[in-house]
Amino acid sequence: MTGAPGPSGASASRPSRPLPRITPLDAAHWEATTRGVLLVQRCSECARWQWPAATRCPGCGADALVWERASGRGRVHTYTVVHAAGHPAFAAEVPYNVTVVQLDEGPLMLTNLVGLTQEDITVDLPVEVTFERVSPEMAIPRFTPRG
Ligand SMILES: [Zn+2]
Known about the structure:
This protein has one helix and eight strands; from the N terminus they run αββββββββ. 5% of the residues lie in helices and 35% in strands.
């Protein structure tokens, strides 16, 4: 037992937090998160990076997507600050941000920023990935200001 928060550790007073469902398509990504590695698909035909996981490259249509380690660096593309939690499990966390980070490799990733106040979030803010372990099988990629 790691003691990490998650569905099995939720108490009656705090509802279980909804987590992404691991599918065969993105299992490699989630396995890597447990090792602190950000894997994103890349097309071995046209070199385009792809997230979320797809079966074919949206750029060239090739059935040639492979998992590669991304830099974990990017910039804030857009964000919103949530003041009314959309799920009871997040009620204690308001206000929190929901942010789209554009990875340096190109893909957009829906995430949250951590390690800053909501007022400090700006479009184009340089960020880097950090991982929040939420279960034995999963760590959620979050982003924190760089430098
Ligand atoms: Zn391609």
